[in-house]
Queue: 2 jobs
Job 1
Amino acid sequence: MFFHALNWQVVPGFWFDHDHERLDLSLTMKSCILCQSPDTKTVFNENNIPILECQNCGHVYSSFQQEEHYEGYWDGAEQTYDLQWWDNAHRAVYKDFISTYLKNDSGNLLDVGCGLGFFVKSVLDKKPGWKAVGYEISKQAVKFANEQNGLKTVHSGLVQDSNLPKESFDIITLWDVIEHIPKPHSLLTYLFGLLKPGGILFLQTPNFPVQLLKANLKVKLKGMKEGVHYLEAKDHVNNYKMKTLAELGKQCGFENPKYKVLMPILSVAGSKSNFAIYLKLGYYYFTKLIFVLSFGTINWNNTLFLTLTKPK
């Protein structure tokens, strides 16, 4: 069962792994959010934080116990933002999204976890007939969106507390959000109620099988080091595959899961080289070709882009 799978020992006040190294007390017993099974195996260990795969349904999650509504991603006393990353590098994927999904001249869009508001701004700039609303729990990020991006429709707080009208949105987006939420069912069920019948929920999140390959390669080449991005075990508390992300949507009432391969973020962490960006683009075109030729069954892209539909 769970203890055997992790090979942990319990001592009052402490956790120890099989090498008798002390683990963070925030590592606590968890079960799978999709099937509630406690049976797991460790598929990666990031600086003494095991990443677990459910042996019943295959869902992957971190053993780290993160807050349900963690506000620290954007905040800090001297917080500055890398606008090359958050603005310029994201423009291509936002443009691809808009041309792919916002084909109507008008509509209502809600962006949940909208951060600094650059996606909302892109929608309003590219599609003036659309109304776009953003919700973000970080007050500091919302301040930037309001003051620097001039967005009056970006609001601070939990979207679940927004009192937005039911069945009022044509599409709801979550960019790099779902992997941060320990228990996502209540959020997605709430968003289900905000969508019009036939409305679309869009989820973007790292493609776990690909990310795991990259993490193992990093460790093999350079070893495990503090501060290096592997699977971000303290932030990405749920890690999704095509099957498990679609299953999450199904459990929250959605149907018709459809994956696409959209443009990547045109930046490479830790590198300012244009060559690295060209390599990333080349990999994108390669994975998109494989995805199309396999009729959507083989997805080697770094990122999952999923739409789910609310039944009419």
Job 2
Amino acid sequence: MILVTVAIIGAIAGIAGLSFALVAHNRVNQVVEECADVLRRQLQVASGAVDNQSLRDLAIVHYDALKEMSGQRSFSLALINSVGDGIVLSSINGRTETRTYAKVVRNGYGVDALSPEEDQVLRAARLGKGPVVQMGDPLPDFGRSDPPTSFPSPASSPARA
């Protein structure tokens, strides 16, 4: 009886291990593909095929910010150039009022704290996943959870063509 129990536990552990391995394998493949996309986009910039100043990446995400209206009327929109500078524009829409916010983006990170929706739309724009993304779309965080504490001033940035 003990041997049967041990065998059953071993089989369950083996199945669970295979399941974890498959999930990890799929996630690794997804991350590798997204990293390759980012590298391809950066190579375009490095080769001079892209104007650094022009807005080239955009994404928009719709959501219910106040949980009082149906139809996901609030939105965040990211507009950034090839080096990650730009803005995130958010409109929070309620029954009686609308608020609009614009936040500066430098080097791919918000200068001010970003909401989860703003962070999602910025990451989607950086990956070229726009124009329309969903909050549930899995996107990498580019290896940092916090933005840099200081940004180079425009005078110290390399000259842009």
